[in-house]
Amino acid sequence: VKTHHIIAGAFRVKANAEKKIRILKSKGYQSAYLGLSSYGLHQVTYGSYEDPQKALTDLKRIRQKESPDAWLLSVK
User: Fold this and answer.
1) N or C: which end of the chain has fewer CB within 10 A?
2) pLDDT per residue of the chain (76 residues) written in tens, 0 to 9
3) Positive or negative, the Cα torsion across 31, 32, 37, 39?
């Protein structure tokens, strides 16, 4: 089960989330719509992982290469 998600952004408007997914997929990421956050924002991932170490390694690379604002969401 993939419980570790690298978050690319959270959007009030779902269309903006869908646009971000298309952009990230065009760059080769396994981007997906994660659903609504507790604040009612549409969350978009760079990717989701089973292995927390792999997630952290990719997060570090994404922060350097893509966005310093990316963060890791781990769900129980």
Assistant:
1) C
2) 999 999 999 999 999 999 999 999 999 999 999 999 999 999 999 999 999 999 999 999 999 999 999 999 999 8
3) positive
Six token digits for residue 19: 């646009």
Q: At 71, phi and psi to the nearest 5?
A: -145, 165
The token pair at 48 is: 């989701």
* pTM score: 0.94
